[in-house]
């Protein structure tokens, strides 16, 4: 994807939060192409760990997301919960899983792409450990990855984590060493998009792309029953209040530092006309 801003020694990157079910997929198809035009984006990252019935990703899902304009797909802990995902991770080098899962798992933890301007850009996927599976240390993993990738190109980090404190710690740990650190996983957009002191763009959570008339993507009635009765209930993806959430980050290519970060919520929460495209309800046990 060619970026007009490259002639001015900068690139704008769109980073889209966790796609949830068919509603999230429809929102990306609806909004992403126009957002690419609006922001003159030269690179697009989409987290899609929840796109297949709330957990996982199929080859057809990846094809649809790439067809809408994405360059790289990132994921997180739920990506392992559908067997079809392993095929995607094995066959698509630009569909990532968190780097810090133990060796032997399918897939890549980072991806480097050459831009049409002859430069390169890297995307790195990590997962936190607080209130999450006890996998390898993401801080040591990111040090290793940066050593492999190098420091002379923009690096975008998707840190898929539960705890706000762990995400902030990672942002500060990487400030000045990567171009952007964005949090995913908790499905609620945070209001702290900022440029950290040493030039790294940061937000604690992008928010989800999917149905907000829900409990973080799940049909309200079933989710509430889980809390009341403390027993499992069938997962059903909600279908209403669909929004796309993410950020647009502008990076100066000479220094690889961020110069701007703009939060994107389409439509806004004050707009009651949320996207009402044709979606079907997904469910899984």
Task: Give structural notes.
With 285 residues, the chain is an alpha/beta fold. It has a single domain, classed as Purple Acid Phosphatase, chain A, domain 2. Helices cover 24% and strands 25% of the residues. The chain contains 6 helices and 14 strands. The strands form 3 sheets. Strands 1, 2, 3, 10, 12 and 13 form a 6-stranded mixed beta sheet that branches. Helix 4 links the parallel strand 5 (120-127) and strand 6 (155-160). It starts with 9 loop residues before the first strand and ends with a strand.
Q: Judging from the principal axes of the Cα atoms, what is the shape?
A: globular
Total DSSP helices = 6
Total of domains: 1
Number of strands: 14
Oligomeric state of shown chains: single chain
> Rounded to an integer, what's the Rg over CA atoms?
18 Å
Mean pLDDT equals 92
| Coarse structural class | alpha/beta
Q: Quick one: CATH class? A: Alpha Beta
Helical content (DSSP H or I, runs of 4+): 10-25%
Cα(first) to Cα(last) distance is 39 Å
Full CATH superfamily name:
Metallo-dependent phosphatases
Largest sheet: 6 strands, mixed
CATH architecture: 4-Layer Sandwich
What is the N-to-C order of secondary-structure elements (H for helix, E for strand)?
EHEHEHEEHEHEEEEHEEEE
Indicate the CATH topology: Purple Acid Phosphatase, chain A, domain 2
Note the topology:
Blueprint lengths: L9 E7 L4 H19 L3 E5 L11 H9 L4 E3 L9 H8 L18 E5 L5 E8 L10 H12 L5 E6 L3 H11 L5 E5 L9 E2 L5 E3 L6 E2 L8 H10 L5 E2 L5 E11 L4 E10 L16 E2 L1
Parallel strand pairs: 1-2, 2-3, 5-6, 6-7, 7-9
Antiparallel strand pairs: 1-12, 4-5, 8-9, 10-12, 11-14, 12-13
């Amino acid at each position: 994807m060619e970026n007009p801003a490259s002639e001015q020694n900068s690139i704008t990157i769109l980073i889209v939060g966790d796609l949830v079910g068919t509603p999230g997929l429809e929102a990306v198809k609806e909004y992403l192409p126009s957002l690419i035009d609006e922001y003159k984006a030269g690179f697009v990252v989409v987290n899609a760990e929840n796109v297949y019935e709330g957990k996982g990703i199929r080859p057809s899902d990846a094809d649809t997301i790439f067809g809408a304009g994405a360059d790289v797909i990132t994921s997180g802990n739920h990506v392992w919960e559908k067997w079809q995902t392993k095929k995607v991770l094995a066959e698509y080098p630009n569909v990532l899983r968190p780097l810090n899962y133990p060796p032997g798992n399918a897939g890549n933890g980072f991806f480097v792409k050459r831009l049409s301007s002859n430069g390169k850009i890297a995307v790195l996927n990590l997962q936190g450990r607080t209130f999450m599976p006890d996998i390898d240390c993401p801080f040591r993993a990111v040090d290793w990855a940066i050593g492999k990738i190098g420091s002379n190109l923009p690096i975008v980090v998707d840190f898929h984590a539960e705890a706000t404190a762990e995400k902030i710690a990672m942002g500060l740990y990487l400030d000045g060493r990567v171009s952007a650190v964005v949090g995913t996983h908790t499905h609620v957009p945070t209001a702290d998009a900022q440029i950290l002191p040493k030039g790294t763009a940061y937000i604690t959570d992008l928010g989800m792309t999917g149905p907000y008339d829900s409990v973080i993507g799940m049909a309200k009635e079933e989710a509430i029953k889980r809390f009341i009765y403390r027993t499992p209930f069938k997962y059903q993806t909600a279908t209403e209040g669909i929004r796309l959430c993410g950020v647009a980050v502008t990076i100066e290519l000479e220094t690889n530092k961020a110069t701007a970060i703009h939060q994107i919520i389409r439509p806004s929460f004050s707009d009651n006309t949320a996207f009402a495209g044709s979606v079907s309800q997904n469910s899984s046990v």
